[in-house]
Amino acid sequence: MKFVLGLLVWAFALQAHATVSVVDDAGKTVTLPQPAKRVISLAPHATELIFAAGAGDRIVGTVGYSDYPAEALKIPRVGSHQQVDLERIIAMKPDLLVVWLHGNSERQLEHVRKLGIPFYFSEPKKLADIPSSVERMGILLGTSVQANRVAAEQRVRLAQLEKTYRNRPVVRMFYQVWGRPIYTLNGSNILSDAIRLCGGENIFANLSMPAPVVSTEAVLLENPEVMMMGDRQAEKSGGLEIWLPYKNLLAVKNGNLFSVDADLVNRAGPRLIDGTALVCEKLEEARKRRHP
């Protein structure tokens, strides 16, 4: 018995110090000599992914708007997703940085990179990338048991949503990021993948810019059946009421102007799965309002 227990202790010790390796969202291999114990998250969605993987207690620093779960509010800040305090990051002695691919300052990150701190670039592009990201966080942080369980639950939920909505009639919709000027999203954004899963069609999916500015005339010409916006952005930028004067606009005529919880749809983290379910519900409402 003592021999068996000794083997188990040895195996766990070996696992704790084993090299870990994953491929990040930039396609680069990230290898650590052992699971990270001190991680800095430089994006709110990355903070949520790390907590989902069961490694929230490993985060020693993060950025503004990292406010979920509640425990994240207690983590020291090192700046924003656009500007970080390099000296503070260095003083925290992280063994891993989780970085937003297009949200963090490349110039600043290059200074940190030269110090030899490992980087993991995080930018999920599809809903299926969310459980995959949780699993990879689990590998890098040594919490694979919880991470794999959470990822499996997420995949089940996504499969259920896909099954429910895959054969529903298509709803052409416009997602408004901002109202003055009018910003939207193209098809490369993960929210467009959520819209697709729900049986929706992003009317500006084919534009080349990830977050293009569009004209009022362009939206009217497309005449979407649904218009949707995050509630927090609606409060700051005029919201969807800017479309109410256009009585012949199909979305206005049918009463399909929807505000949704911005936190659930604007971050490429675990809660986007809840946001996807919400988007699906709104599109289903629009289908029920169709005139015969």
Describe the model.
With 292 residues, the chain is α/β, with parallel strands linked by helices. 41% of the residues lie in helices and 14% in strands. The protein has 2 domains: 14-152, Nitrogenase molybdenum iron protein domain (Rossmann fold, 3-Layer(aba) Sandwich), CATH 3.40.50.1980; 168-288, Nitrogenase molybdenum iron protein domain (Rossmann fold, 3-Layer(aba) Sandwich). The protein has helices spanning 2-16, 44-52, 86-91, 106-113, 129-141, 144-165, 190-197, 216-222, 231-237, 250-253, 262-265, 272-288; strands at 20-23, 29-32, 39-41, 59-61, 96-100, 119-122, 171-176, 200-202, 226-230, 257-260. The strands form 3 sheets. Strands 4-3-5-6 form a 4-stranded parallel beta sheet, with helices on one face. Strands 8-7-9-10 form a 4-stranded parallel beta sheet. Strands 1-2 form a two-stranded antiparallel ribbon. Helix 5 runs antiparallel to helix 6, helix 6 (144-165) runs parallel beside helix 12 (272-288) and helix 7 (190-197) packs across helix 12. The chain is globular, with a radius of gyration of 22 Å. The N and C termini lie far apart (75 Å).
